[in-house]
Design a protein that fits this description.
The structure holds 3 protein chains of 3 kinds. Chain A starts with a strand and ends with a strand. Chain A has 4 helices and 5 strands; from the N terminus they run βααββααββ. Helices cover 37% and strands 34% of the residues of chain A. A 5-stranded antiparallel sheet of chain A has the order 1-2-3-5-4, covered by helices on one side. By secondary structure, chain B is an alpha/beta fold. Helices cover 64% and strands 9% of the residues of chain B. In chain B, α1 crosses α6 and α4 crosses α7. Chain C is of the alpha/beta class. Chain C has one domain: STAS domain (Transcription Regulator spoIIAA), CATH 3.30.750. Chain C has 4 helices and 5 strands. In chain C, strands 1-2-3-4-5 form a 5-stranded mixed sheet, with helices on both faces. In chain C, α3 links the parallel β4 and β5. In chain C, α1 packs parallel to α2. The C terminus of chain C is likely disordered. Classes of the chains: A alpha+beta, B alpha/beta, C alpha/beta. Chains in contact: A-C, B-C.
């Protein structure tokens, strides 16, 4: 997998969630994503950015244009140094929430993208990587 | 150039006319059996041209490696023949027989040339067999590729043709689905249905699956998601034309159609749709007696 | 601070969301709407989201909350104009906004509100006559 373009953004304030959405929209449009694919990717980014802010106490997101063979895609990596998730399996269950969302953040975003990877260590932080192919 | 290749090249050069006439005879017999519709003159031209190219290539030596530049012309011509036969509906073996039917005529001439030299006869025959086998396999490969291209093109055409969202009444849309629903196609169809709902401001959409032979779990889920999405937008979906087998599948798969309205036929669904939009169908004249 | 305007039209309140909403704006809208329903005795709330190109679970929850709170305050809520791509995404995300009425556009939404609140308006009218 080759990375052809990348950028990094901070997620410290709730305004940053809006900025992340706008950046993802721009990148997805430039890639030529269909309207539905764009919407799915932006929504997933919005969910994960809010998770990073609310549960991770803030962090960063890395945006990458990736290329694998003939396919182009958009990969986002959300990283925080927060408390981490003790029970990943539970956190990925529909309806499970500890905050103010609907408990659809993690499990829902997983369904909106093609690839989803989460690494979390209690006391060290959480990293979520999502990829959507064109 | 090895002696064997030279021998083969000599045979091809000296007995070209004999090989050609025998070969054509073999092929027209085979084509007639297969009921092929190919003109004699066309076949003769193809064979003569191919034999000429084969001879030229063999004279250049190197029979082992057919990928070499010396074999370009042979490969190109064979490719064209295979592709056109493939598109005309010839089977792969019928296509390959263009090459394989040359074996006997060629072997006859090789025996005539080397009849007394057993070793040369065996070696040259082996070389010729190897060469023709490779060419035969090549025709099959090209044939296969041509058919795959046809399939791919038809798939794309089907996808484009398969989204006829029709307005059957003011505020009522119908989507008659036909053929097997794979997940990509269902998604495309559903997106276009939802877009049409917005464009026409239709409050009711009938999804008719009379023409759908089977439904798998993924397709059933797509259908359900579409109904839910339409509801979020403020439109109702009615699913009609569910065949008995599909009803059984849906229950076996454990798909919960929940509160989705389902009707046996498109006509029943239309009645419900009209009712919900405050209309009714009324007979304006009593049917004549006996009718 | 940014605020989403709420229009009052007779017995109904109308909100058109036209901006990419910050979380604060969402919370403020929720507060503003509930207090206006109570202050005006409104019977219906219409939320037009035809300009929104995404609805995530946070906004989804806000819509659900507004509907539930309005219900407690005796008002019906209808959400109109959700785009197809947004609807498809919401379904995939796992939100079906149960308990929220929806309509294709403002016109149909108003008709739905009128139909849903017809009984109440009549009773109100009678009540006022007697005063």
């Amino acid at each position: 997998m080759d990375v052809t373009k990348n950028d990094s953004m901070e997620i410290r304030l709730s305004d940053h969630v809006v900025l992340v959405r706008q950046a993802v929209r721009k990148w997805a449009t430039d890639l030529g994503f269909s309207l539905v694919d764009q919407t799915k990717m932006i929504t997933a980014a919005s969910e994960l950015a809010r998770n990073t802010l609310d549960y991770g106490g803030g962090g960063t997101v890395r945006l990458e244009l990736v290329k694998q063979g003939p396919r182009n895609g958009l990969r986002l990596t959300f990283e925080d140094q927060g408390p981490g998730i003790p029970d990943l399996e539970k956190a990925l269950t529909d309806g499970y929430t500890t905050g103010r969302g609907m408990g659809m953040g993690l499990s829902g975003s997983k369904r909106l993208v093609n690839e989803f990877e989460i690494v979390s260590r209690v006391g060290e932080g959480t990293r979520v990587t999502i990829t959507r192919w064109k | 150039m090895s002696d064997n290749v030279k021998g083969l090249s000599v045979v091809l050069t000296n007995y070209e006319a004999e090989i050609l006439s025998d070969w054509i005879k073999e092929q027209s017999a085979a084509l007639r059996r297969a009921g092929g519709a190919m003109k004699d003159t066309e076949l003769r031209d193809q064979c003569a041209e191919f034999l000429r190219l084969l001879r030229t290539a063999a004279q250049g030596g190197q029979v082992e490696n057919l990928d070499g530049p010396k074999w370009n012309d042979v490969r190109e011509m064979l490719g064209n023949i295979s592709r056109s036969r493939g598109l005309q509906g010839f089977s792969p073996s019928e296509t390959a027989s263009f090459v394989f039917s040359m074996k006997r005529p060629l072997f006859v001439q090789i025996r005539r040339e080397f009849g007394k030299d057993a070793e040369a006869l065996a070696d040259t025959t082996w070389l010729a067999t190897e060469l023709l086998d490779k060419l035969g396999l090549y025709t099959t490969e090209v044939h296969q590729k041509a058919r795959e291209e046809v399939i791919l093109r038809q798939q794309q055409e089907m996808l484009e043709l398969s989204t006829p969202v029709v307005k059957i009444w003011d505020g009522i849309l119908a989507l008659p689905m036909i053929g097997t629903l794979d997940s990509t196609r269902t998604q495309v169809v559903m997106e276009s249905l939802l877009q049409r709902i917005v464009d026409t401001g239709s409050g009711i959409a009938i999804i008719d699956i009379t023409g759908v032979p089977t439904v798998d779990t993924l397709t059933a889920q797509h259908l359900l998601k579409t109904v839910t999405a339409a509801r979020l937008m403020g439109a109702e979906c009615i699913i009609s034309g569910i065949r008995p087998q599909i009803a059984q599948t849906i229950v076996h798969l454990g798909v919960d159609l929940g509160d989705v309205t389902t009707k046996a036929t498109l006509a029943d669904a239309l009645v419900v749709a009209l009712e919900r939009t405050g209309r009714a169908v009324k007979r304006v004249q009593t049917a004549s007696k006996g009718a | 601070m940014e605020r989403i305007p709420i229009l009052r039209m007779g017995d109904y309140l109308i909100v058109t969301i036209q901006v990419d909403m910050h979380d604060r704006v969402v919370t403020t809208l929720q507060d503003d709407l509930t207090s206006m329903i109570a202050a005006n005795g409104s019977h219906g709330v219409l939320i037009d989201i035809s300009c929104l190109d995404i609805v995530d679970s946070f906004v989804g929850r806000m819509i659900g909350n507004i509907a539930a709170m309005s219900h407690v305050l005796d008002a019906e809520t209808v959400v109109v104009g959700m785009r197809p791509a947004v609807a498809i995404t919401l379904v995939e995300l796992g939100l079906s906004l149960t308990g929220v009425r929806t309509a294709l556009n403002v016109e149909k939404g108003m008709a739905l509100l009128r139909a849903a609140t017809r009984g109440r308006l009549l009773e109100d009218g009678d009540g006022r006559d007697q005063e």
